[in-house]
Amino acid sequence: MIIVLLGPPGAGKGTQCELLARERRLARVSTGELLREAAARHTALGELARPYVERGELVPDEVMIGVIREWLTENAHAERAIFDGFPRTITQAEALDGVLADLGRQVDHAVYLRVPTEELIRRLSGRYVCPRCGATYHLATSPPRVPGRCDICGASLTQRPDDRIEVIRHRLEVYLTQTMPVVDYYRRKGILIEVDGARPIETVFADIQAALPPVESN
Ligand code: ADP
Ligand code: ADP
Ligand code: ZN
User: Fold this and answer.
1) Domain of 75: which CATH number?
2) Does residue 123 lie in a domain region?
């Protein structure tokens, strides 16, 4: 089973992806996280992606398609996987279908988290992340137990450079023009699960779980 998680920046994709991956034992790939790790390690991919990520632009399709193809090849054994942040353009969605078809596989479910813009801005401007383990927090809605410290590994929390207000606004525009059409792409295929993401984390999670096939049968 392959699930893709769609939604604007700040919709809660990373948060729900983590919960779903744990609960359903899914291999998880987050393209944003993968690019941030590559940038931190100064790999060729990281250096190529950095200027796009910092400006809130999308990294070119051919680069991202290469990343996903490589992940799928290396993780051929992963029968159940969840994608967070990919695909983000129609070109990526079509390429994903092509790569999966070559492997005799397909996207089974596309979960779309719908959240109003004002709430997205609130969420992104209060987001803090752990640079060591990738855990996500929010100043107001899910603060760490000790201010500024990761609950899981104790590292100092940071804000993402692309969570500055000017970049947030640009990412939201990029989302509307380039990624919104992907939602329709999966709707037309009849595999879209649309969820109201503007509710507490546990409520959103329960809704997604209810819409997906029961864990035993996947
Ligand atoms: P995305 O991966 O879609 O950008 P995240 O999962 O990183 O979104 O969440 C963005 C911010 O909003 C984080 O600070 C996170 O803690 C917070 N958040 C996530 N889901 C909810 C929710 N349902 N209600 C309130 N805040 C949330
Ligand atoms: P968010 O959680 O706010 O939705 P992500 O962590 O998923 O953001 O992505 C951060 C940045 O990484 C994006 O703004 C973009 O520059 C780049 N990126 C991630 N995934 C993709 C993708 N599939 N195609 C192009 N760029 C991507
Ligand atoms: Zn941590």
Assistant:
1) 3.40.50.300
2) no
Residue 69: φ, ψ to 5°: -60, -45
Q: Please state, in angstroms and rounded to a whole number, the distance separating the CA atoms of residues 81 and 176.
A: 26
Domain membership flag for residue 172: yes
Residue type, 128: Y
| Residue 41 in domain | yes
- Could you say which ligand is closest to the alpha carbon of residue 132? 3
Alpha carbon 206 to chain centroid distance? 18
Atom of ligand 2 nearest to the CA of 36: 12
Check if 197 has its Cβ closer than 6 Å to any atom of ligand 2.
no
Could you say which residues of the chain have pLDDT below 50? 218
- Residue 134 is predicted with a pLDDT of 86
Tokens found for residue 21 = 């991956």
* pLDDT tens column, 130-184: 988 889 999 999 999 999 999 999 999 999 999 999 999 999 999 999 999 999 9
Per the CB < 8 A criterion, the answer to whether 110 and 6 are in contact is yes
Task: Residue 27: give the domain boundaries.
Answer: 2-115+165-211
Kindly state whether residue 205 falls inside one of the protein's structural domains.
yes
The per-residue pLDDT for 217 is 53
State the pLDDT at residue 14.
95
Q: Judging by DSSP bridges, how do beta strands 136-138 and 127-129 pair with one another? A: antiparallel
Q: How many residues does the chain have?
A: 218
Q: Is 29 in the pocket of ligand 2 (CB under 6 A)?
A: no
Helix axes 117-125, 165-174, angle to 10 degrees: 140
Q: How far is the CA of 109 from the centre of ligand 2 (A)?
A: 20
